[in-house]
Amino acid sequence: MNEPLLQRISINPEICHGKPCIRGLRYPVEFLLELLSSGMTHGEILTDYDDLEEADILAVLLFAARLSQVKSIHRLAS
């Protein structure tokens, strides 16, 4: 059901050092998450970055949600 959104996330070693990005553009997922967490609205982001689409923002949020679906977290060192 959400696969079309996730297809907007690309990983290419030649773009942004292989970080997950939006549609092969040089917008890493982490950058958009930082904008959202700073309080920017979807509309503000879309106004500032006119090559992005609403679906791109939704894809970033879905990608982050999927990454957080881990079974357990173990401490590696104290």
TrEMBL record:
Pfam families, per database record: DUF433
SUPFAM superfamilies, alphabetized: Homeodomain-like (SSF46689)
Entry protein name: DUF433 domain-containing protein
Record lineage: Bacteria, Bacillati, Cyanobacteriota, Cyanophyceae, Gloeomargaritales
